[in-house]
Every structure is written in structure tokens, then in C-alpha cells.
Amino acid sequence: MIAAATEFQPGSAAELLALCAGEWMCLRSKYTPAGGDEDWQQSERADLQWSWLASTEPDQLGTLQFQAKGETPQKLQFFSDGKLQTAAGDQASWQLRAGQLELSQQIGAQRLEETISFSKPNLRLRNVLIWHGDQLIAAQFCSEIRRVSRSVA
What is residue 58's predicted lDDT score, i.e. its pLDDT? Predict the structure, then answer.
């Protein structure tokens, strides 16, 4: 039932980004339309660490940092006007639509679009589409489960 999957919706982009903080187990499938009968090129599992640092500046939401184990951390700085910037200085944009955070970045002739949503506070879904002009050249789907500690009784 689709309605049940969308019942949990953060009320703001800052709330959604704050929910991203934590340790996540990610199951990712990569798809390449040009692959013929074997379009699903790869499925993999990863452990990701995400953190959110809210800003006290009125023109900024804050900084989201994420890192796969053994890799260099990546940072995205979110601004209140719908823009974001990577640590390398690359520019992109974001918008919150129907409880989903949509990120978009143009890199030469390619456009990357990512959607982040939550079905539940500990279940996050991410979709990435890579376009060359109006042609889809790659896609990823990630289902991510937050790692939580068992409380000691």
C-alpha cells in the first residue's frame, strides 16, 4: 500500500537532514539502461556514517557530512535559499517536495538528481538519476536502515 509508505514525512528540510544523522546500513543497486538484458550492473552493501551540523546563520540550514567506511568524508553545505555547495566548491540546488528532499547538480552536459526520503525514522530511501541531456544514462536505488543500539534493561 503506497499510502502507508509515505505516512512519515518530516515537516522541513532541516528536520529531514537532521534525521540523516547516524550509522546506516545501505543496500544499493546500480542500473545502466544501455546494458541490454543485464541492465542491473551491480548490487552492493555499505556502512555509512552521516552527521548533521545545524547552522546558527539565518541564510544557512547547516552541513551534512557522510562517509563510507575507509573513504574520505563528503560534505554538503545547505543554504536557506535552496542552494547547496560541496566541500570542493561545486554548486547545486535542493528543494523539499512532498516530504522528500530533491538535490540537483549540473556537471557539464550531465545532470545528477538525487531524492532522499524516509518511510520511517529508521528507514531511508535514496534514488539517484544521472542524465545526459534528456537521456537517462545511470540510476541507483538505495534502501538504508539505521543501526540502533539495543537498550540495556
Answer: 93
